[in-house]
């Protein structure tokens, strides 16, 4: 079945990026037609998919929430339930909910230069559907929703208990009275340990190498003060101004003075842990601060679980699984009734959707990113990747505002096709995500590339990106604007 209408913008995914893009279009370009197509049966993306105990943001919600819709909860670091409520409220407020088509999984996208349109194929609950559009905004993020990273552990079948991955958390799981081993050292593990420890007999975090963990207040006292004396929107702007700069300065401090940053974090950890705790074994990562994302412990909950004796850490290599737990290479047995494999995620760029331009499949690994949101030689397609060193949504707001400005500028010039020109073989390529996380390193060769500088780099500085949006021309020299008639004329000339 083929839809009769042609959309100006087709948004793939109803997570925080897709809803953000839809709101920007509704606010800034109300005359444009758009719709959101979501494979699952609810909005929220990551925040609806993951259901493990304690799931929450690592970023403060005053910067993780949208710039145009204030975060009003008292919690600066909030659980998924509050984030979902905020997303629903935002989608309703800006008329997005009624334009989301649930259970519509996009399976292919084909660009036709002669028409200047994308033909997007999808499977819906009513069967196959094809929708034509002028622009695609891929808001699928870069996680694989269907498959997680799951290493094979020696003798895993010997274990008599339950093995659970956080991405596929069983609804009926009851930690009460259980001994639980959580394998992993990233944000998911740091969230799970105190959440499970509240009811479990004991939780042991098993980590090959430690991560940097910082206790952070659940609530922001300064934010609460501002909200008590200023109108909601003014207070929100002031809090975002403060928090974005603190994020930036702390990241730069860690990058510029890693030894001092390490010492500062170590001092904080010592203060949070029991007297005499072996900080150097369990809280001493082999990499520099912010080579990987720092983990947050809201209210110091992770450290409290250790101090209360409800949780402990085992640092070292796993030798094998046994019937009643995990045997470490040191010989120690971590007894467990349930093992949680918080071992990471898999990347899947653009939802693993095959894109074709005039019949030729787009090889992502051969493309360069333009302004962190488009691909070289791929017309009228933008995608959403947020910051890795700050709140994801700060970047999404920038990308969506630029997309709206670009479409407006094209309308003013009477052009409908926008193609970032291939920068050429002389430009030195760098990995798309200059980040040392395991899930990035495992997939880096499958991702697009970035260049050494503007506009072919994946920038990580929100304040610099804001200035770029304000001061740099919307129609960059690297963009080729045209119309379908221009393309047809060129083809006729070449044929003659």
Write up what this structure looks like.
The chain has 496 residues and is of the alpha/beta class. The chain has 14 helices and 25 strands. The chain has helices spanning 16-28, 46-49, 61-64, 80-93, 187-197, 221-229, 232-256, 258-272, 279-282, 301-307, 392-413, 438-441, 462-471, 484-495; strands spanning 2-12, 34-37, 100-101, 104-112, 117-124, 127-138, 162-164, 179-183, 202-207, 213-216, 295-298, 311-315, 318-322, 325-328, 333-335, 338-341, 355-357, 360-361, 369-370, 374-375, 381-383, 417-420, 430-431, 449-450, 479-482. The strands form 7 sheets. Strands 1, 2, 3, 4, 5, 6, 17, 18 and 21 form a 9-stranded mixed beta sheet that branches. Strands 7-16-8-9-12 form a 5-stranded parallel beta sheet. A 3-stranded antiparallel beta sheet has the order 13-14-15, with no helix packed on it. A hairpin with a 4-residue loop joins strand 14 (325-328) and strand 15 (333-335). Helix 7 (232-256) packs across helix 8. The longest helix is centred in the middle third of the chain and has 25 residues, at 232-256. The relative contact order is 0.15. The model is unreliable at 488-496 (pLDDT under 50).
Secondary-structure-based class equals alpha/beta
Average predicted local confidence, pLDDT: 92
- Proportion of residues in β-strands: 15-25%
Number of strands: 25
Ends apart, CA distance between termini:
38 Å
The percent of residues in helical segments reads 25-40%
Please give the count of helices: 14
Name the overall outline.
globular
Please tell me how large the radius of gyration is. Answer: 24 Å
Low-confidence stretches: 488-496
| Major sheet summary line | 9 strands, mixed
């Amino acid at each position: 079945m083929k839809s009769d209408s042609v959309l100006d913008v087709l948004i793939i995914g109803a997570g925080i990026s897709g809803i953000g893009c839809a709101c920007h279009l509704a606010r800034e370009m109300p005359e444009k037609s758009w719709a959101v197509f979501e494979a699952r049966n609810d909005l929220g993306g990551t925040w609806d998919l993951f259901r493990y105990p304690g799931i929450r943001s690592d970023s403060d919600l005053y910067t993780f929430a949208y710039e145009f819709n204030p975060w009003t909860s008292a919690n600066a670091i909030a659980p998924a339930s509050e984030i979902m409520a905020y997303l629903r409220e935002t989608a309703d407020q800006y008329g997005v909910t009624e334009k989301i088509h649930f259970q519509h999984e996009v399976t292919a996208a084909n660009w036709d230069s002669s028409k200047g349109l994308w033909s997007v194929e999808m499977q819906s609950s009513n069967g196959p559907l094809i929708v034509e559009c002028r622009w695609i905004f891929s808001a699928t993020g870069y996680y694989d929703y269907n498959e997680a990273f799951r290493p094979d552990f020696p003798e895993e079948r010997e274990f008599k208990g339950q093995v659970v991955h956080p991405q596929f958390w069983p609804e009926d799981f009851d930690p009460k009275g259980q001994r639980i081993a959580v394998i992993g050292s990233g944000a998911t593990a740091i969230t799970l340990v105190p959440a499970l420890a509240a009811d479990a007999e004991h939780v042991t975090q098993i980590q090959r190498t430690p991560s940097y963990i910082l206790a952070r207040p659940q609530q922001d006292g300064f934010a609460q003060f501002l909200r008590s004396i200023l109108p909601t929107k003014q207070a929100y702007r002031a809090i975002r101004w403060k928090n974005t700069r603190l994020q930036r300065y702390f990241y730069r401090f860690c990058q510029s003075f890693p030894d001092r940053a390490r010492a500062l974090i170590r001092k904080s950890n010592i203060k949070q842990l029991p007297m005499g705790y072996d900080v150097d074994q369990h809280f001493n990562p082999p990499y520099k601060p912010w080579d990987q994302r720092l983990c947050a412990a809201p209210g110091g909950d992770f450290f409290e679980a250790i101090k209360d004796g409800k949780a402990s850490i085992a640092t070292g290599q796993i030798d094998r699984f046994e019937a009643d737990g995990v045997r470490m290479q040191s010989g120690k047995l971590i007894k467990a009734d349930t093992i949680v494999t918080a071992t990471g995620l898999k990347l899947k760029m653009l939802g693993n959707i095959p894109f074709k331009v005039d019949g030729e499949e787009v090889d992502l690994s051969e493309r360069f990113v333009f302004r962190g949101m488009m691909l070289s030689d791929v017309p009228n397609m933008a995608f959403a990747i947020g910051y890795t060193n700050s709140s994801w949504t700060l970047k999404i707001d920038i990308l969506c505002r630029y997309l709206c400005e670009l479409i407006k500028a094209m309308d003013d010039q009477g052009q409908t096709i926008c193609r970032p020109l291939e920068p050429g073989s002389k430009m030195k390529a760098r990995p798309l995500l200059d980040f040392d996380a395991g899930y990035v390193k495992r997939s880096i060769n499958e991702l697009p590339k970035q260049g050494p500088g503007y506009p072919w780099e994946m920038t990580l500085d929100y304040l610099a990106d804001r200035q770029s949006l304000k001061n740099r021309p919307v129609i960059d020299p690297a963009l080729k604007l045209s119309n379908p008639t221009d393309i047809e004329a060129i083809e006729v000339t070449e044929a003659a």
